[in-house]
Amino acid sequence: MRIFLVEDTHDVGEAISRRFHQTGHTVDWETDGVAASEILSFTEYDLVILDVMLPGVDGFSILRKLRQSGSGVPVLVLTARSEVDDRVSALDLGADDYLVKPFDFRELEARARVLLRRRSGGEPTNVIICGDISLDRTNRNVMVGKREIQLKRREIVLLEILASRPGKVFSKDELLDQLFGFEEAAGENAIELYIGRLRKKLEGARARIVTLRGSGYQLVSDDAA
Hints:
The protein is an alpha/beta fold. The chain has helices at residues 10-22, 33-40, 59-68, 84-92, 105-120, 153-164, 172-179, 188-201, and strands spanning 2-6, 26-30, 47-51, 75-79, 97-100, 127-130, 133-136, 141-144, 147-149, 207-212, 216-221.
């Protein structure tokens, strides 16, 4: 999934980016409030992690503008302010959750998983199931029946995108946006490559990736046929 991190403290930003990259997510990181607000005006994300104290424009102002634009992207606010009024203000402005600094990175990841589940419209669990394919979003492992299959980071993310909405057709552009960040150059051929690799590793499963020419790709469960 594609995450936008707005955090001006470099060691914190680097640590958060590294943690989410390791679990397969694409992370765009911005340190300036003005630039972040502009990026959010033309780029869609699955989750925004937003610090409050920022240079240029503070996080509350960014959140207010984002919600006024009609965006429903989940927003997790990070704040060093522990006062109840500040937490209430974040929620009233449209934040979906918040964490007070300093925080445990395991809790950040857990809260992010909850918001990403809501975004995908899935069940309230960390395990996605399609046919006999199961993907554990916490441990990042994939099973076909009782057999564990080894997937690389982006292959897991691609499967997560497709399996979170079985039957939905995802265009190449949609998949590119979610698999690659601003600083990663990739073309449509990259999607074809990852789809091909994932298909081979899922051979024998009771779910398959279907190509709809001119439209995109979907994951279809044989059990639903």
